[in-house]
Amino acid sequence: MILFLLRFLGGWYVISGRREQAAAFLDLCMRERFVHWRFCYTDDEFFCRVSRRGWRRLSSAACSCGIALCCCAEHGLPRRIAPYRHRTGLILGAIFFCAILVLSGKFVWRIEVIGTEKYRSADVIEELSAQGFGIGAYIPSVEVNSLQNRLLLYSDRFAWLSINLIGTTARVEVVEQKDREMPTNDNAPANLIASADGQIVQFSLQDGWTAVGIGDVVRAGDLLVSGIGERKDGGTQLVCAQGAVYAQVMHELSVEIPLTYDRKTYGKEKITEKSIIFFGKEIKLLQNTGILGESCDTINNERILTFFGGVSVPVAFRTQTQLPYTLEPASRTVDEALTLAEYRLRQQTDALCADRELISQIRSTTVTETSVRLDCRLFCIENIAQSSPILLGESD
Question: Which of 111, 125, 317, 387 has its CA 20 to 30 A from that of 231?
Fold first, then answer.
């Protein structure tokens, strides 16, 4: 492969001669160490390939020995660029392209942000820019560990941050700072009260005295575990009641799907805007104008420019399409409404039971002329213990 590349860059000729002089030609090449390859012959002629540089010496030596050689064809890079040698603009453009291709791998031209919830990706990029890092940063000069430490030191938005340089892309993973809670005294006297209505099924306590028993039905706010107890000497003891109190709790969910609804209908008219992004700067190239209504969907498509199967350059093409739509009345069958209601109810159930144990459920379906309604009662086992501080002056 390397030998072929060198020959392509230097160029080569296909030469021919009379067959009766083939032996003399081979003796000449062996004696003078001329390099040739792909030697073949027909009934009248022989053919082989020689480099452009070797052809000058070979033709002179063959002429002095009486061997007639003829150049049949030329191949390689010099022949390809020969028609453009006087077109300065194309040559400069090719040089500029090669420079971008080589140098682009040394600069950051795309930043991906992962893990944001409260903040936008633009907020993270703004924090990076304040520390001197952004699109166009010279990768060899970036000290990732120092940059991460400075961000965590000067920013109150992030609890953890990691920057990974993958080619010309900087992938930033963040964990946002949680809202700071007021400090609490874990040893302060407290009771455990019920956070919801339910029937007690199990206790798992670290401290405190139970105020109800297994099987008892409690209401939200009722005392479950007391932090006030009696010492052996007859005095009163205050503790911080801690632990879990599990109860069977009922939750009611409801989903209603109308049989008539507004459906989006897209027309043939659309507005397309095309732009090129170079090192983070967007340059608009093309836009077809039109008058759109108030309602439209926007579709953004960004394509990164790559060459040779994966070599990226700091250039991307963005296409933004706006599709106008109108809302038209439509209807669905009872079966379609029921299927949609089941799907939405399953989503609510999965979210509710993420930290609860589902015991059973009771469903009912109501079909009217205008809608389909699903009602569901879920019976779950969950921890209903909620800490409630004991204020001075309270007796229980």
Answer: 387
Sign of the CA dihedral 322, 323, 329, 332?
Answer: negative
114 shares its domain with 159: yes
Rounded-to-integer distance, Cα 190 and Cα 187, Å: 8
Same domain, 6 and 75: yes
Tokens of 146: 């120092």
* Residue 124 contacts residue 174 (beta carbons within 8 Å): yes
First to last CA, the chain: 88
Beta bridge partners of 48: 15
Token pair 């407290």 is found at 190
What tens digit of pLDDT does each residue of 2-14 get? 787 788 888 889 9
Q: DSSP letters of 108-119?
A: --EEEEES-SSS
φ and ψ at residue 269, rounded to 5 degrees? -75, 140
Q: Are 372 and 334 in contact (CB under 8 A)?
A: yes
Cβ-Cβ contacts under 8 Å for 336 (sequence gap 6 or more): none
Amino acid code (one letter) for 44: D
Least confident stretch, 246-255, 278-287, 327-336: 278-287
Tokens found for residue 192: 């455990």
Q: With beta carbons less than 8 A apart as the criterion, state whether 196 and 229 touch.
A: no
Burial class (CB in 10 A: 0-12, 13-18, 19+), 50: buried
For CA atoms 26, 30, 32, 33, the dihedral sign is positive
On whether the CB atoms of residues 28 and 34 are closer than 8 A, the answer is yes
Mean pLDDT rounded to a whole number for the chain: 84
What tokens does 355 get? 């930290």
List pLDDT tens digits, range 346-363: 999 999 998 899 999 999
Task: Supply 213's token pair.
Answer: 């028993």
| CATH number for position 147 | 3.10.20.310
- One domain, residues 344 and 314: no
Contact 225, 191 (CB under 8 A): yes
CA distance 222 to 210: 12
Residues 223 and 282 in one domain: no
**Pairing mode of beta strands 169-176, 110-114:** parallel
- Domain interval for residue 170: 105-176
Tally the residues of the chain.
396
